[in-house]
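tl;dr need the bound structure. longer version: we got a ligand (iron/sulfur cluster) that a collaborator sent over and nobodys looked at where it sits. i said id run it. heres the input, straight from their email, havent touched it
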Amino acid sequence: MPYQTKPYPEWSWSLSRDQMFHACKRQYFYHYYASHGGWLLSAPPDAQTTYRLKKLTNLYLVLGDAVHTAAQKLITLREQNRTYPTKEQIVTYIRGALNTAYQDSKKKAEWWGYPKQYTMLHEMYYGGELPRERVEAVGNRIAVCAEHLLMSESWREIRDADNITILEVEKLNDFIVNDKKIYVKLDALYRRGDGTYVIADWKTGKVAEKNEEQLRLYALYLHEYYGVPLTHIEVRTEYLLDGFCMRSVLTEEDVDIIRHKISASVRSMESYLDDTYYNRPLPIERFAGAGETSVCGMCNFRQVCTEKQ
Ligand code: SF4
């Protein structure tokens, strides 16, 4: 008997899920429901296709992942008391990651057969080649991000202070808000000798409003999961492109905002369920398209979507 999975995925909430829900309901349906089980050879062809489309990435995301991996490696080296790479070595590593993604993306058949082993860039999948302006834009960010990572306040503190305890690095974790499982993944969490908990978040993009929500969510996580008073939590966003660090200490009011947001978001998402126990969605027709060419242009599911603009 072939390996089976549950007919519907387990329900959970994350900020990225909320963002997709608001950007396009149809995209949300493809990503969180239609792709479910598509990794199985016994899955219906539509689920197999949607699952593969869900895994498409793009140059900006590959850059972001590579920078995050570089930061993670730096912290691992610190924990092992080993020598740190130079800026040039980090640049070489990031370039290598981008080049691998490009080379992988030429192997469509291999990616289709083994979507977890290969990377497929959205730009290549839909456009056939990489747009030159985007290659240049991403290329220009590599050395800047590498340099600013090494100069960032959080990395220098982790590297130089001897009373730092690393608690989490890129670890997917969950906690409960109003009986709902909430997923978070912190880039780095550490405790200083003075008892302050620092959450460091590396950003390779521009300043955006959604970053504020992320900080509130992280502070709520630390407050609820570790029981740390908010006054002992410092949240830092390290903007690697612009080379500055935004520090915040959040208040009860700040975390209440995110608590309310989660509750409202969960209610909205549940209104698109036929059955909340099984997490069975309403029929696909009830999930409207974005209706905006700018959103559809970047969407992974253009190939299968009947609502695309
Ligand atoms: S192509 Fe457009 S309408 Fe369709 S899922 Fe993507 S964003 Fe939504």
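gonna send this back to them w/ a short note. Residues 24, 26-27, 30, 289-290, 295-296, 299, 301-302, 305, 307-308 surround iron/sulfur cluster (CB under 6 Å).
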